[in-house]
Amino acid sequence: PSLPPSLSAVLKVFFGSRFFLLSFCTGITTHHSSLLGAAMAFEFKSDPDTAHFRALCNGILLLTAFMLIRLLGGSVLNLRGYPVGEGLDHPLNSFWAVCKYPPSLAYASLTLGIDLLLLYGLSHLTDESRISKLLLVYGKSPLAFYILHFYVINIVALIIFASGTPGVPLPAVVPMWLGLLVVMFYVCRFYGKFKADKGPNSLWRLL
Predict the structure, then answer these.
(1) To 10 degrees, what angle do helices 5-15 and 18-46 make?
(2) What was the pLDDT predicted at 13?
């Protein structure tokens, strides 16, 4: 007996197309990169100079891989953006538009490459520098930042829509994003001091 049309369509998307292959491969790569990051922590502790140099080399390799995927991968290795003919009226934006869900190789190579280069760059900062102290405020409360920033964004969105404005132009997104970081700085600083007063076994320290 034949399968229902709806079930056949679902199976075709997940198991009979490039979306499944790319999502599976990139999903495995992304999760392995998390394990690799945890393993790298031991080298960052025992031999930080070598670890940061490797971060620089791997970051360059990943960004090179992104450029090759973008320029030569076509619609086979790219799920969104310039290679699949999306957003060609804005070529610069289209080139950097990558697909996070389902995960793509372009997304993984671009984001991990940038992260590793930032890691190398930040390694040259001293603990007493103003930038280090600023970033440490966010770094001490990462999960609290992640959870609470959704609520801040939704509150701002409700205010915008309540004013009768359907949205904001793209140039206004950057200053709004910077404003969000300013707000979250004080939120993270408050929460960092709050959980610092809790015992080592307190659940508040998980946020």
Answers:
(1) 40
(2) 47
How would you label 67-98 residue by residue, b for 16+ Cβ within 10 Å and e otherwise? eebbeebeeebbbbbbbbebeeeeeeebeebb
Residue-wise pLDDT for 15-44, tens only, equals: 444 555 555 555 555 555 666 777 777 888
Cβ neighbours for 202, distance < 8 A, ≥ 6 positions apart? 195
Contact yes or no for 140/192 (Cβ under 8 A): yes
DSSP letter for each residue of the chain: -PPPHHHHHHHHHHHSSHHHHHHHHHHHHHHHHHHHHHHHHHHHHH-HHHHHHHHHHHHHHHHHHHHHHHHH-HHHH-SSSGGGT-STTSHHHHHH---TTTT-HHHHHHHHHHHHHHHHHHTTS-TTSHHHHHHHHHHTSHHHHHHHHHHHHHHHHHHHHHTT-----GGGHHHHHHHHHHHHHHHHHHHHHHHHTS-TT-GGGG-
Residue carrying the six token digits 């690799």: 36
109 touches 63 (CB < 8 A): yes
